[in-house]
Write a structure and sequence with these properties.
single chain; alpha+beta; Isoleucyl-tRNA Synthetase, domain 2; Ubiquitin-like (UB roll); seven-stranded mixed beta sheet; four-stranded parallel beta sheet; 27 helices; 38% helix; binds ligand ANZ; binds zinc ion
């Protein structure tokens, strides 16, 4: 008897698949229906972790199953390979980001290949390679031409001691993550993508994404944040200048007793200009610049502000309202000005109490208007519309919807990102790089000091250039793009990754998109998915593609936990995938991960669970090994006994259940559980003296086929052992035999006074009276009804008999 030598089995099949090109596919082949299975590509940190193993194991089962079902499956993998860690490594270890990144990719690819994943590596992309970022730059230029990319001033986080711009994540409680200095705000010109161009579509199309988790759709919806209200204009007292505010509560206007402006707004600056309040604003602004956006928007922010010396007139009450600046008003939302309603808005309430401002309630407990003149007594919803009408009549306001969604700031003062392909000329201004000069390559003569605005500034060969328009000396843009730009379109490039004329061929991408199944972490539920959706809409507008949404179905997998908390390097509670595979094999690792929890749920790591899966695979191996000679014979079913029929029913029922579980339901754990049951039954059945070898053969084949997508190496090996030719993944997914699962007998539940007391077997289609008799005469049931009065017997055909006794 041979043993389950997973090491040599896995090595053997990985080599065989490789040599045969098992997973190569042609995206231009349209002879079969397409299926695009995509897992979120990783940042190449150098080491895979259990989260990757989980993500990719799930994707691999889906891809293999769909291929067996006859689809042409696109299942690619690549690298989100620009980003800060490479740059930090460069600063720390004096190694070039490109070298560091490529060696990490090498390492990770090797680790992934240990898992036996069915990727077509010919489709690989790495976003930091010139072959890829050339097209990211081309896309930028197209967006620029279409006014979907533009430049404007904005504030960035600046560390005065590191002399560098910090990303929001690098600011911890207002301090630089590296040196703890107080972070300042510095105004720089920055590039933006106009995400707001598609706010309506991004919101409306969420409705059609019924293959997405509801919670993710909701998160997107909240992020886009559409609100309904009005713009209202207030005249400045003693001037004909006006201030416009955005409010979602025009019904509360009679209760508005002060106005609050964002300290950064131009409005505030204009109002104090040349007055004694100018230094007040300056001092307040300096304080604001030490705070991050996140802190400013926090609900528990301690409200603070200053009066700036002027008043506005409330258009409906005619009363004077003092104008303040306050930390809770944001410059880039609405108009940057708020009508303060202390009685009905929590933030305004905190503020009014602190600074002793007037508080006038205008809506009572029954949602009826009070203190609101002609609107008194009206329901507040009615007043909402009526007040807007009134303001419109007066020329003081109008209905307005607003989106919380901002344009996307894509400039990064970093080296290891995609260079923004524009040139600045003193005479011509911003000049796009000619397409024939793409890619704008990252220079290699850069010093990584961690200081300065952008590392690219230190490269003369890079910054100095000539203007494409007039030929005069000019300089290049030194900022690079946010890495979310790279990951917003990689899944389109996969479909046509060798294209050297354009980012992708329109027909090819129109055929392959949307992705049929996208799988990844819920941490990308907002930004990555939103940006990818926005790119899709932008490409459609450019006429490059015709689909509306990038991802038809989305699965957000749960976390991998150890002792209840997320496995992470910082907590030191990790299990190394490499060590795991070395100890038990990839098939055990995959099986455990898929069996231990449904994919959307968190998964608690258990060494015992891994052990259990390993034992199970050993058990399967021994069983198939023992029965292989039988499985190779030419056999007929002949006459079947009850036991034979039961075994056939089990086999075919299992096949049916697994097929249903895998068909877009992600019931991996229940499918594996069903397989385990089948194995148990088969172990018992094979010991029967009058066993039927044709029944065994049928069961063994089902076992191997069902196992294959989960444990592909062992699947192939067993397939060979039972005399078939590789590959088990080239055969079609088998249909189950319907006639085998239509049993001659059914199980009938017998209840006495509503309590289940026994289960009895009865022929299918048995008469109700015969059913009742069988139940009443059953030995076990007799014990429960002896000496009692049978009042009533109810029978539900083929299911249940209930006996009522007194
Ligand atoms: C008066 C009022 C009364 C308001 C009330 C709310 C409740 P959403 O729903 O998020 O769109 N607001 C407007 N612009 C702002 C800014 N730049 N920074 C901070 N807050 C701002 O929020 C709209 C509401 O947020 C607006 O409606 C405004 O306050 C405030 F009982 O106006 B409201
Ligand atoms: Zn010029």
């Amino acid at each position: 008897m041979s043993v389950y030598d997973f090491k040599s089995i896995e090595k053997k099949w990985q080599k065989a698949w490789d040599e045969k090109g098992q997973y190569k596919m042609d995206t231009r082949d349209t002879s079969k229906p397409k299926y695009y299975c995509l897992e979120m590509f990783p940042y190449p940190s150098g080491k895979i972790h259990m989260g990757h193993v989980r993500n990719y194991s799930i994707g691999d089962v889906v891809a293999r199953f769909k291929k067996m079902q006859g689809y042409n499956v696109l299942h690619p993998m690549g690298w989100d390979s620009f980003g800060l860690p490479a740059e930090n490594a460069a600063i720390k270890n004096n190694i070039h980001p490109h070298v560091w990144t490529m060696s990490n990719i090498e390492e990770m690819k090797e680790q992934l290949s240990m898992l036996g994943l069915s990727y077509d590596w010919d489709k690989e992309v790495a976003t930091s390679t010139p072959e890829y970022y050339k097209w990211t730059q081309k896309i930028f230029l197209e967006f620029y031409k279409a006014s979907l990319a533009y430049k404007k001033n904005s504030f960035v986080n600046w560390c005065p001691s590191c002399e560098t711009v910090l990303a929001n994540e690098q600011v911890v409680q207002g301090q630089c993550e590296r040196c703890d200095s107080l972070v300042e705000k510095k105004e720089l010109e920055q590039w933006y993508f106009k995400t707001t161009e598609f706010s309506e579509e991004l919101l409306a199309d969420l409705d059609g994404l019924d293959g997405w988790p509801e919670k993710v759709r909701l998160m997107q919806k909240n992020w886009i944040g559409k609100s309904f209200g009005a713009n209202v204009t207030f005249q400045i007292d003693g001037s004909d200048q006006e201030i416009s505010v955005y409010t979602t509560r025009p019904d509360t206007i009679f209760g508005s007793t002060f106005m609050v402006l964002a300290p950064e707004s131009h409005l505030a600056r204009d109002l104090v200009a040349g007055t004694e309040y100018e230094p007040v604003l300056d001092e307040f602004l300096a304080k604001m610049h030490t705070m991050t956006q996140i802190e400013r928007e926090a609900a528990d922010l301690e409200k603070e502000g200053k009066f700036i010396g002027k008043y506005v007139i409330n258009p409906l009450t005619g009363k004077k309202m003092p104008i303040w600046i306050a930390n809770y008003v944001l410059a880039d939302y609405g108009t940057g000005a708020v009508m303060g309603v202390a009685a009905h808005d929590d933030r305004d309430n905190d503020f009014a109490k602190k600074y002793d401002l007037e508080i006038i309630p205008v809506i009572d407990e029954d949602d009826k208007m009070i203190n609101s003149g002609q609107f008194d007594g009206m329901n507040k919803d009615e007043a909402f519309d009526k007040i807007i009408e009134k303001l419109e009549e007066m020329g003081k306001g109008n209905k307005k919807t607003n989106f919380r969604l901002r344009d996307w700031l894509i400039s990064r003062q970093r080296y290891w990102g995609c260079p923004i392909p524009v040139i600045y000329c003193l005479d011509c201004g911003i000049v796009p790089v000619d397409e024939k000069d793409l890619p704008v390559l990252l220079p290699t003569d850069v010093e990584f000091t961690g200081k300065g605005e952008s590392p690219l500034a230190s490269s003369k060969t890079f910054t100095e250039c000539s203007c494409p328009k007039c030929g005069k000396p000019a300089r290049r843009e030194i900022d690079t793009m946010d890495t979310f730009v790279d990951s917003s379109w990689y899944y389109m490039r996969y479909a046509d990754n060798m294209n050297s004329d354009r980012p992708f061929d329109t027909d090819v991408v129109n055929n392959w998109l949307p992705v049929d199944q996208y799988i990844g972490g819920v941490e990308h539920a907002i930004l990555h998915l939103l940006y990818a959706r926005w790119f899709t809409k932008a490409f459609k507008k450019l006429g490059w593609t015709s689909h509306d949404e990038p991802f038809k179905n989305l699965l957000t997998q749960g976390m991998v936990l150890m002792d209840g908390s997320k496995m992470s390097k910082s907590k030191g509670n990790t299990v190394s995938p490499v060590e795991l595979v070395e100890k038990y094999g990839a098939d055990t690792a995959r099986l455990f991960i898929l069996f231990a929890a449904p994919p959307e749920r968190d998964l608690e790591w258990s060494e015992q669970g891994v052990e259990g899966c390993f034992k199970f695979l050993n058990r399967v191996y021994r069983l198939v090994d023992e029965l292989a000679p039988v499985a190779k014979l030419e056999l007929e079913f002949g006459n079947l006994t009850k036991a034979d029929k039961d075994m056939r029913a089990k086999t075919n029922n299992t096949l049916k259940k697994v097929t249903e579980d895998l068909n877009d339901k992600f019931g991996f754990n229940t499918a594996i559980a069903a397989l385990m049951e089948l194995i148990n039954d088969l172990y018992k059945y094979k010991e029967l003296e009058d066993r039927n070898d044709a029944v065994i053969k049928e069961a063994i084949k089902a076992v191997v086929v069902i196992l294959a997508p989960f444990a592909p190496h062992l699947g192939e090996e067993l397939w060979l052992m039972i005399g078939k030719e590789a590959s088990v993944f080239d055969i079609g997914w088998p249909d189950y035999d319907k006639s085998a699962i239509q049993l001659d007998e059914v199980e009938i539940i017998v209840q006495v006074n509503g309590k289940v007391r026994n289960k009895i077997n009865a022929p299918v289609g048995i008469d109700q009276d015969v059913m009742k008799n069988l139940a009443l005469n059953d030995e076990k049931i007799k014990e429960f009804i002896e000496g009692k009065n049978v009042v009533k017997v109810i029978a539900i055909p083929s299911k249940l008999v209930n006996i009522v006794v007194k």
